[in-house]
Design a protein that fits this description.
494 residues, mainly beta, eight-stranded mixed sheet, 2 helices, 33 strands, 45% strand
Length: 494
């Protein structure tokens, strides 16, 4: 009994001695392992609904609900339809969000099968594995509210075999008024985080898709709603835009005088002032001293009341089919004329010459004998081809030579009023514009939504501008003037 008691007393002592000899110091409490977000990690991504193979009634709106996660932060989720980027939703958080669940909508207009592709992108620019869904847009008569295809009535036919149910999206009841919607597509200019000096001009352009079922009418506006307005107008006009088409909306601002980070938020509004669609955001950094503005060179001696004349262009060399902005500021003058026509002393105007042109500003000065002239020359670089054409169903065109139905053709207009790219050509639909010159060469060169997919009726409506790349690498733009029967259009190839 005494021997057993001695052994029991020695055990704690031996254990303590063993611990002390192992480290030479007391051992700290083991910490729980911590997961570290590694740069280069790939987001995880799941589509919640609809199911693959869903039937969608024509005229309905398909809601695609997805969930993404990444310790590095999710910054955006893209929805592609038939190989074309249809919608991009951005978290607008600098570091992204660790998890995002959202619903993206797509109007089911064109009958037939469609492929939806979704992917999430983290703050490092790393994309998740893309997820694809196949859906079929069918006539409303082909589905019933119970979610099945309408069976054919055949006397004596055997009962239909039971199949795995699929999702069916039916049109919602017709609302009392069309609900407009808008989805951000891309920053055409001034990506988030762009740096400016105090007082620098900022020209911000967002590309926005009309993701609703009704067109944006004349009178729709982009309205400042929150943050830093940065000297911009409270509202900016939005061009009329058909459903599924895109519009580029530009706001002119001025970098604040105090260094820092600035954010402005804008939303579209209807003619009655109702806000709708995704919020459009600009985020800029202002640092360093203001850029000094050189004083204008006086035309006459700087005496009290002397005229001050400034006449400049934002650029003096342009590609054929582009425009430049002429700007003039004149003080203490009797009259001001631009190319012989009277104008106010402070104004700006777009000039879209098709050949190298001189623009003359004529200023009549108080007490002066002869008017003072200032000249701005816009040099136009000639295109490879600039032309217009009308083609019938089945006709094709080589845009590089303007020859129909022969050679290395780039487009084909078929009997279903669909525009098909040929021989490696690709299209990027820009949206409805007033003229071909409303889209500049740089916009086509920087477009990211080029696709070799066919363009159906909604994408070739009158007024739509389409950028294209030929199979041989030529870049150009095309303006639809009429697509109601034969296809009439103008185009430029650089």
């Amino acid at each position: 009994m005494e021997r057993r008691t001695l052994i029991l007393l020695l055990v704690p002592f031996i254990l303590a001695l063993s611990t002390a000899c192992d480290s030479g110091a007391p051992s700290p409490t083991a910490a729980a392992p911590t997961t570290v977000a590694q740069a280069g990690s790939k987001p995880t991504f799941t589509v919640i609904s609809p199911s693959d193979g869903a039937l969608v009634a024509q005229g309905s709106t398909l809601s695609v609900r997805s969930s993404a996660a990444d310790p590095r932060g999710i910054t955006k989720v893209e929805l592609w339809v038939d190989g074309v980027l249809y919608r991009m939703d951005i978290t607008r958080e600098a570091e992204g969000l660790p998890s995002v669940t959202l619903t993206q909508t797509w109007p089911a207009a064109d009958l037939g099968p469609h492929v939806l592709l979704l992917k999430a992108i983290n703050r490092d620019g790393v994309a998740s594995d893309p997820l694809t869904l196949s859906v079929s847009v069918v006539p409303q008569s082909a589905v019933t509210p119970s979610g099945t295809r309408t069976p054919s009535a055949t006397a004596g036919a055997a009962p239909a075999a039971t199949t795995t149910p699929v999702t069916v999206v039916l049109p919602s009841p017709t609302p009392s008024a069309c609900e407009p919607d808008a989805a951000f597509v891309s920053d055409v200019t001034v990506p988030d985080g762009t740096a400016f000096k105090p007082g620098d001009p900022i020209v911000k352009t967002w590309r926005v898709r009309n993701s609703g079922k009704c067109g944006w009418e004349a009178g729709y506006q982009l309205t400042f709603v929150d943050g830093n307005q940065m000297g911009a107008a409270k509202t900016v006009a939005v061009p009329p835009t058909a459903p599924s088409a895109t519009a580029d909306i530009t706001v002119r601002m001025t970098a604040p005088a105090t260094p820092g980070d600035y954010t402005g938020k804008w939303k579209l509004t209807t003619t009655s002032g109702v806000l709708f669609g995704q919020t459009l955001t600009i985020i800029v950094k202002v640092s360093g001293p203001a850029t000094p503005t050189p004083p204008p060179t006086p035309t006459v001696a700087p005496t009290p009341g002397a005229a001050a004349i400034s006449f400049v262009a934002d650029r003096t060399t342009i590609p054929y089919g582009d425009c430049a902005t002429l700007k003039w500021d004149v003080d203490n003058a009797l009259s001001v004329k631009l190319d012989g026509k009277g104008v106010v002393g402070h104004d700006a105007r777009q000039a879209c010459p098709t050949a190298t042109t001189d623009y003359v500003l004529e200023v009549s000065i108080t007490g002066g004998s002869d008017p003072v002239e200032r000249t701005v020359t816009l040099t136009v670089n000639p295109p490879l081809r600039a032309a217009g054409a009308t083609i019938n169903a089945g006709d094709s065109v080589d845009l590089k030579t303007a020859i129909k139905n022969t050679g290395d053709v780039d487009i084909l207009w078929d009997a279903t009023k669909t525009l098909l790219p040929k021989n490696g050509a690709t299209f990027a639909v820009i949206g409805i514009k007033r003229a071909l010159t409303d889209v500049q060469q740089s916009e086509c060169l920087n477009a990211t939504n080029y696709s070799n997919g066919n363009l159906t009726s909604s994408s070739v409506a009158s007024g739509i501008v389409i950028c294209f790349k030929t199979g041989s690498g030529r870049n150009g733009k095309l303006f639809i003037t009429d697509s109601s029967g034969p296809l009439s259009f103008q185009w430029v190839v650089w």
